């Protein structure tokens, strides 16, 4: 499941990038909702909180905040990815 | 007493023999919850991505436990709960959510919810939630 989780943000980021370029706030919000749920499931709570803020601002039609926060997602995901990959490596060893 | 190879969780097999319905619009989250249940030895688990499918499965299989997400598109968890209670008043319902908002907790408790879990849900947390919710439902049913 953790390996599967690592794939989700990559897909979400690509979709968010595409939606952002079209200023499609609803699509960004939907992706943030999906990523929020999965992130909190695996215990990536700060990333889940960031997704929650993106989703909330999207639902409030605050496009600027929504898109601005969405652009910070890859940076927020980096330590999560590092942590999970280290955990998986330990398991394999 | 049955001991599983999972760190001594699940000291009786009542929960293992129960049936479960997991309702969550997110596939990964559904699979995660199923994984936790299976880890506890609960293998009779069904899943629904939305309220319509969930109601259909509820009528067909009458699950003992319903594990329910709050925020879903179309019909949210609280609305679904109202529909569920009309067909299955005795089902044990646990909200499983990523929301730590006190308002969501209060609203869930004001409804006929028997338990409330905030993600991430480990097997230990899940077991305690299942046992607690079952006790709460028994109390409500008198």
Task: Describe this protein with a few key phrases.
heterodimer, A: 93 residues, mainly alpha, 86% helix, 0% strand, elongated, B: 142 residues, alpha/beta, five-stranded parallel sheet, 5 helices, 5 strands
Short summary of the structure?
The complex is a heterodimer of chains A (93) and B (142). With 93 residues, chain A is mostly helical. Chain A has helices spanning 2-21, 25-41, 45-59, 63-70, 73-92.
Report on this model:
The complex is a heterodimer of chains A (93) and B (142). With 93 residues, chain A is mostly helical. Chain A is built from five helices and no strands. Chain A has helices at residues 2-21, 25-41, 45-59, 63-70, 73-92. In chain A, helix 1 (2-21) packs antiparallel against helix 5. Chain A is elongated and about 45 Å long. The two termini of chain A are 18 Å apart. Chain B is α/β, with parallel strands linked by helices. Chain B has five helices and five strands. Chain B has helices at residues 27-39, 51-61, 77-87, 102-110, 123-141; strands at 20-23, 45-48, 65-68, 92-97, 115-118. Chain B has a five-stranded parallel sheet, with helices on both faces. In chain B, helix 2 (51-61) runs parallel beside helix 3. The two termini of chain B are 27 Å apart. In chain B, 41% of the residues are buried. Residues 1-5 of chain B have low confidence and may be disordered.
Chart the SSEs and their pairings.
The complex is a heterodimer of chains A (93) and B (142).
Chain A: H1 2-21, H2 25-41, H3 45-59, H4 63-70, H5 73-92
Helix pairs in contact in A: 1-2, 1-5, 2-3, 2-4, 3-4, 3-5
Chain B: E1 20-23, H1 27-39, E2 45-48, H2 51-61, E3 65-68, H3 77-87, E4 92-97, H4 102-110, E5 115-118, H5 123-141
Parallel strand pairs in B: 1-2, 1-3, 3-4, 4-5
Helix pairs in contact in B: 2-3
